[in-house]
Amino acid sequence: MLTLEINKAFRERLNTGRAVLMPGAANALAARVIEDLGFEAIYISGAGVTNTFYGMPDLGFITLTDIAQHCAAIRNTSDLPIVVDADTGFGNALNVHHTVRMLERAGASAIQLEDQVNPKRCGHFAGKDVVPLEEARRRIKSAVDARQDLNLLIVARTDARATASLNEALDRAAAFIEDGADITFVEAPVSEEEIREIPRRLQSTPQLVNLVVGGKTPILDFDALDRMGYGLVLYANVALQGALYGMVNALSQLKSDGIMTEDGPLAGFQMRQDVVRKDHYDGLERKYS
């Protein structure tokens, strides 16, 4: 499917007012699994890419090139909408313009930009800081102007809940909506009441809630968040955390036993080939031989 068609369908899906449960993928293999399991959208997590690609924490180490390469690889394997975490846009408003153009061409359906200083840090880490509101608004205005497909969604994130207050974060999100953001994302609310307040105060635009397992935000049931009015319910790194847990278990058993068979705690050989569509490529090989 063409990205233009995917983007149009994604915008229409969000306009229904029903929430989308969206897992994150740090690579194309995770994206394959997400699509095979019937999810409706994929999120490319900057933290996930940093952890898996570099083995480093989410402290602003990745670049636009890293994210664009991952986005293109995932678009090549999936027809699901892709929401891309573009951090701060990798610089000033001019850099944001370039970032949006690059990620749109790489196959993004939505691009998320935030108001942290550059380099940023994980939204659930201590020590965050945000840029002045006018600078943050310039980023969003630049992103809105840069897109060529009007169905490409701009997600405006604020981290001001941690640096100031929930009211400050909500005021910033409202300003971003004035600037043309299609979705807003108040990062790291710390109570159920704060989670409820966000869509109450920002009813004109779909809201994204980020549920980080082990993070600062309480984990609530998807149906409850849907009833509150959220548009996107994000679990950015469940796939990554599950994979890490599985790797540690499997490799620990290999280390202790000195042997591993398909009875071990791992996906079998055939399952691995199924996920990467080996049958499809075998067919292509026969066709062109």
Number of helices: 13
Across the major sheet, the strand order is: 6-5-4-3-2-1-8-7
How many E strands? 8
Task: Profile the largest sheet.
Answer: 8 strands, parallel
Could you say which overall geometry the principal axes of the C-alpha atoms support? globular
Range of helix content = 40-55%
Key structural traits:
single chain; 289 residues; alpha/beta; eight-stranded parallel beta sheet; 13 helices; globular
Description:
The chain is 50% helix and 12% strand. The chain has 289 residues and is α/β, with parallel strands linked by helices. It has an 8-stranded parallel β-sheet. α10 links the parallel β7 (208-210) and β8 (232-235). α2 runs parallel beside α4 (64-77) and α5 (93-106) packs parallel to α6. It starts with a helix and ends with a helix. The relative contact order is 0.12.
Question: Short description, anyone?
Answer:
The protein has 289 residues and is α/β, with parallel strands linked by helices. Helices cover 50% and strands 12% of the residues.
Layout of helices and strands, plus pairs?
Blueprint: H1 3-14, E1 20-25, H2 28-36, E2 42-44, H3 46-54, H4 64-77, E3 82-85, H5 93-106, E4 110-114, H6 133-146, E5 153-158, H7 160-163, H8 166-178, E6 183-186, H9 192-201, E7 208-210, H10 222-228, E8 232-235, H11 238-257, H12 269-275, H13 278-288
Parallel strand pairs: 1-2, 1-8, 2-3, 3-4, 4-5, 5-6, 7-8
Helix pairs in contact: 2-4, 4-5, 5-6
